[in-house]
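Continuing the series of single-chain predictions for the mutant panel. This is the parent chain; the variants come on the following pages.
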Amino acid sequence: MIITLKKTAQEQVIVNKLYEELFKSTIDIIVEDFRGSGYRIIKEYTRGASLGIKRAVLFDETKFFIKIVEKVARENQVYDNRFYRDNKIFLNKIEKYCFHPGVLVLPFYEGKCLDEFLFSSTTSLSNKIGKIQYILNTTLDLFWLQNIKRGNNNLIWAENYIKGRMDSLINDIDSIEIDDKTIPAADFLSMSVRYLSAGKKYDLPPIKKMVEDVIILFYNYRPQFTSCVTADFQPPNIITSDDGFKHIDLSNSEANGDIAIDIGKFFNFITRFYRVSFLRDGVKLGNALKPIFKVNQHNLSLEIDIAKGNNFKNVAPYIEERFALKAASLSGDFHLIDRITLYKFVVNLITIRRHLNYRGLQDLLFANLIDSYAEIYDKILNI
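Parent structure:
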């Protein structure tokens, strides 16, 4: 699959000079507290789709994490919210160094990204499962069940957001090339889909219709409350250590959100999106997959076994089901279980737009989207 963007679509332009000036000003302020002892950049973080500055910096014997990227101004506001401030699973920002809305300075937390831990070949599966359960249960107790407001929901926001993402795909993609056939984006998204996965066959609606179905299903399984969410609860954003863990990206957080999006995003990552994340960031995978897309008249076919080579393929559904039931029971919202499944589709729709410029990932991104709709078919539509 080769995606051609419309000529009118403009690449995101990051003003690196401004970011570097902010970084230098931040350094100057911190150095004053260390009596001009100087500093050393000990690590530059380049993972993720957001561009900008993410650096671990050493001053004397003290380490800080300095972040100057898009949405940092919003993230600064989140750190001021009482449900995030002084919470055991988050870091507290260092207020006096955040002199500009676009600068976030945090104490450096020693540890390893959770995705590196979970997909390490030297860590036992039982240790990985234990770590997942500990992080989920702790986050539920200390965060997701906080600030519950009964009778509230954010479905209008969700509907507008999903429709907006779909419209952006149609507007930003000019054409898609499959098997030497060039297909306009609107036609591609309107093709019925035949999906073959691990010997199982699905006859699915067009992607455009999938989006419409998911919006309707959200209203059928509407949340009964809002609560705190990070809205980006993925293993790369979680640092784990011997004494606990910290979630380090709050740029999408909401004090009045749907906890299903966090849970759905987490399990979508360990079963699907991890491949995109690692390949995007140049991390080699020993079990690379190649989706096979074909076009036959007005139909699209896809063949791939998303779960192939994934150590979590047998245990992830079990862990998710048990945890979702626990969260639903404690919150009193048993539609939560279905929304977790629905949000996986939404997450995969969002990530397509964010990764359109990454050649070599586009097949996998659309395969993830179709596979997540097949999960909706199995768990919701076909019951």
